[in-house]
Amino acid sequence: MTTRKQNERRPAGLWPARQTGDTMRELSIYIHIPFCVRKCLYCDFLSGPASEGEIESYVNLLLREIREQSIFYGDHRVVSIFMGGGTPSLLPAKETGRILERIRDGFSLAEDVEITIECNPGTVTAQKLKNYITYGINRLSIGLQSTEDEELARIGRIHSYRDFQQTYAAAREAGFRNINIDLMAGLPGQSLASYRKTLERVAALSPEHISAYSLILEEGTPLYVNQREYTFPDEEEDREMYELTGRYLGEAGFHRYEISNYAREGWECRHNKVYWRRGDYVGFGLGASSMVNNVRWKNPDEHMPYTDCVEKMGDGGCDGRTFESGSAPYITRLKEKSYVEMLRRTGRCEVKVLDSEEQMEEFMFLGLRLTEGVDQEEFRRNFGKTVEDIYGKQIRSFLEKGLLEREGKRLRLTPRGIDVSNVVFAAFLF
Questions:
Q1: Residue 329 CB neighbour total at 10 angstroms
Q2: What are the residue ranges of helices labelled H in 107-215?
Q3: φ, ψ for residue 330 (rounded to 5)?
Q4: Domain ranges in the chain?
Q5: Does domain 4-276 have CATH number 3.80.30.20?
Q6: Which regions in the chain score pLDDT beneath 50?
Q7: pLDDT by residue (tens digit) across 280-301?
Q8: Nearest to 135 by CA among 81, 87, 181, 172
Q9: Residue 139, H or E segment
């Protein structure tokens, strides 16, 4: 919880408040921890092994970035925090605590803020999990992928199914009441029978949330380069796994609220829904992406440019130290244009102000990922035109084909539409 003293020293912020009873805008925070024991064979994420010294140095840089940037978000309330990677659970517990303490020092947090940390089985101890609870972390996301050890070995995972069982039990014992488990279909050597076994074993544990993705061979990864050495499920088997996922998890009490995500009622991931609903989010760390008020930017992917970027953040009197010394009036007078210029000056890889067409595109193809679909009235409020004005031809075509349906004021994919969602999404691009 944020103290009154902390709230009093924050400026009003740079962004216009949403027109609600609460004048504070909602914000989500992503923290990128780019460390892992070794990269999995399918992984193209920004991650890799690091020494203790490199980890400590990175955390110090991350803390500075959070401090320098927090000054701009005095009119935001944080509703979710997500520590992803890499393997964030590789951080010493004290470093995780330092990061969250710095966020609490710089931001207003909602009373019911969702705080998630990703972990791999075998990378946490009972004590570390208890520390997480003490730090306010209330959601754990465990990267399992499969309950078959042979399948795990083929994709380069560092853990066994037994490791996962021990981690899951320890998490429950520590007090975690909100756990997600990541699964993958279409793995080399995986059969429909073995995938069913994975679903059965995981569902029997009654986690609050399951993310089930199909393997994508990303160009440049070892699995992509050496794919001829493996036997993958054929197209028919892959389709059967996909259909089995929805059917089995639905029967087990999980509702599908997004194309690849299933939850027990009331346990949907708040953080991820922010992305799909185009809410404001800011990312900290190497390669982290942000979008606030239709301004999108991305941190550098390499360590030295990222270091230089953080060091330049205070240029022009826009950092927390300057604010503390009494320059709040200057801060509050800044306009959004000035903020964009500051981002570009610091060496961000990409800074883009989204135009109305780009905003509408994202509204449709991100919103349609959710099984609840998009709110047509919200579209009209945001863009001053109806969704039919802009996408009438596409909508009528997909309604006729049974790929879209209307329910009240909402427009959503049908089960058949979900199966060919990429085709539908493409039609909403200008």
A1: 8
A2: 126-135, 149-154, 161-174, 192-204
A3: -65, -45
A4: 4-276, 360-426
A5: yes
A6: 1-21, 316-335
A7: 999 999 999 999 989 899 998 8
A8: 81
A9: strand 139-145
